[in-house]
Amino acid sequence: MNAIYPQARNTDLVVQDMPGEVLVYDLSSNKAHCLNETSAFVWKSCDGTNSIEDILTMLEKNSGGKIDENLVWLAIDQLSEKGLLQAGTTKRFEGKSRRDVLKKIGMASVIALPVIASLVAPRNALASLSCACTSNANCTGKTGCSSTTNCNLGVGGQCQP
Amino acid sequence: MHFYAFESYGVGIRIDSNRKQIIDRVRRIAEVSLLGGLTDIEPDKATQIFKILKEKDQLKLYLNGEDLADTSFPKAFYNYFESRLRVIVAEYAKDLVFVHAGVIGWKGKGILFPADSFQGKTTLVAALVRRGATYYSDDYAILDQNGLVHPFPRKLSIRDPKREFSRSNVAAKSLGGLTGDVPLPVSAVILTRFRKDGNWKPKILSSARGIMQIIPQAIPVRANTELTLKVLKTVANRAIIAKSLRGDTKFCLDEIICFLEKF
């Protein structure tokens, strides 16, 4: 992987294009990611042949204004952190706070900052279902129930405080 | 060994047991829990195999060889079995996506309230049914590939407000409501949970953000990711997705109904 020509991961992903956003589900980690328009644009431009400069040029053309190169790098860093780029992508802002990064980019950008919201799909479907149980072990990780530790057999088996 | 093999929503299930009485009991449980519609199948056609063993006073439950439960409390055991049975059907249903949600029909439109347990889904659904909504489910929204929601009208499991874990099963009819019997297009997905001091202030989410919020309640998201996301996208393309806390239903119901009227 050449760090100057980032490449989007294309395996074990389910991708759904939505208006202004892209939803990406990573089958290997069972994480869902919601990419805003800027992140999605950069991600889709990472085909292994476009350089950061190329992506910047395309982004500027698409938005119709001048954009700081650091904004592309911010998107690349986030995509890399989320595992949505091929392994080995160099990060520019590793170890830097978001505030420092935003200072570098400045607030005059004509487009939205890249944002990726993520969540892990529940490991076990039961986590979001009934609080029925036969032992305390059945209650572990049940976020929807009143308690995650105790199974009250006296009420027919319910996880509760 | 005795067995009962059946299909429900396209999922082939077999239950093996060393006691015939247990098979008779779980058969009745399956019929009630999955609202009938069970079709007997050849035992080797089943893909999900439960095994229930009774040894002395202990009941043991296995699913596909995995040890799930072991107890001497029959009521707890069969409640747990029922919940696992419904999860298995919900997770592997053919061409359908089960979302943990309350569902009503409102003037011909399907309204979904996805939420964890103990977030007041049933209370809200029951209150809306009392106000003229058609009852579809207090448990699952069953979504097909056209984005239609199908009825799953188990009796509403209403909790006793004084005893949190005590429930009674109530038919929609006894609340003065009708039960839906045809699939409806989904026009709104409302992500709401009860909080004592919560105010009803719905915020419309983008389609992708909305789907992200529904994913934790989408049972087959891991087992069948592609179908799940495809169906949720179809729903999101047509429906609004809104999020809000809410307080006591009696204080916010008018506002919720007013909101539903807009879509």
General description of the model:
The complex is a heterodimer of chains A (161) and B (263). By secondary structure, chain A is of the alpha+beta class. Chain A has helices at residues 37-45, 52-63, 69-81, 98-105, 136-139; strands spanning 13-18, 21-26, 31-35, 116-120, 151-152, 158-159. In chain A, the strands form 2 sheets. Chain A has a 4-stranded antiparallel sheet. A two-stranded antiparallel ribbon of chain A has the order 5-6. The radius of gyration of chain A is 21 Å and the shape is elongated. Chain B is α+β, with helices and mostly antiparallel strands and 263 residues long. Chain B has 6 helices and 17 strands. Chain B has helices at 20-33, 74-92, 121-130, 207-214, 225-238, 249-261, and strands at 2-8, 11-17, 39-40, 48-55, 58-63, 66-71, 97-106, 109-114, 134-137, 140-143, 148-150, 156-160, 163-170, 178-179, 184-194, 203-205, 240-246. In chain B, a hairpin with a 4-residue loop joins strand 10 and strand 11 (148-150). In chain B, 43% of the residues are buried. The A-B interface holds A 14, 16, 18-23, 25, 27, 30, 32, 34, 117, 119, 121-122, 125-126, 128-135, 138, 143-146, 151-153, 155-158, 160 and B 61, 69-71, 73, 75-77, 79-80, 82-84, 86-87, 90-91, 100, 116-119, 164-166, 206-209, 211-212, 215-217, 219-222, 225-226, 229-230, 233, 236.
Topology, please?
The complex is a heterodimer of chains A (161) and B (263).
Chain A: E1 13-18, E2 21-26, E3 31-35, H1 37-45, H2 52-63, H3 69-81, H4 98-105, E4 116-120, H5 136-139, E5 151-152, E6 158-159
Antiparallel strand pairs in A: 1-2, 2-3, 3-4, 5-6
Chain B: E1 2-8, E2 11-17, H1 20-33, E3 39-40, E4 48-55, E5 58-63, E6 66-71, H2 74-92, E7 97-106, E8 109-114, H3 121-130, E9 134-137, E10 140-143, E11 148-150, E12 156-160, E13 163-170, E14 178-179, E15 184-194, E16 203-205, H4 207-214, H5 225-238, E17 240-246, H6 249-261
Helix pairs in contact in B: 1-2, 3-6, 4-5
